[in-house]
Amino acid sequence: MSPESEAQGAHKAAFRPSDDDKKMSAYELWRVHKRKRDIREAYVAHWNATVAATGTGRPVDAIISPIAPYAAPPHGKNKSADYTMIWNLLDYTALVVPVTKVDPSIDVKKPPHEFLNPKDKETYELYDPNVFANAPVSIQVVGRTLEEEAVIGISEIVDAALKAASSKL
């Protein structure tokens, strides 16, 4: 099973019981931790396999990705942890780098379109340029477990590159 399908399976199977759930037995807790270990092992193997793609003889140093499918929403409106929860599960290091802020004169809402799924439509309906005005738009730099210093260093390089690029606009 690929790491992506494992992560999707982890998303469907709650790792934390809700208040409505029955108490978890020691055996059930052991199974949850075993599944978490298996997912982590699959991701380590996937990350290590990037050696074949880098051309340096080393795996990738970090992943740069969005934090959410939208800019920072108003308080209480964040509906998605899809871009961050996998890193929590894996115990990977992630650091947020602000890129810009929402400018209602530039970041206008696009006309309605065919939505990919209900979540896509919900994300579309959440956005209002005036409500999101000045909200930060950010990315995350993700590294492996215990790679905090490397992620900080890479984030500084990414931040400097973003600033240099925006000063040329």
UniProtKB/TrEMBL annotation:
Output the superkingdom of the source species.
Answer: Eukaryota
Domain Amidase: from-to ranges: 23-151
* A Pfam family assignment: Amidase
KW Hydrolase (keyword) present:
yes
> Which Gene3D superfamilies does the UniProt entry name for this protein?
Amidase signature (AS) domain
Enumerate the UniProt keywords alphabetically. Hydrolase
Record region (Disordered): 1-20
This chain belongs to the protein called: Amidase domain-containing protein
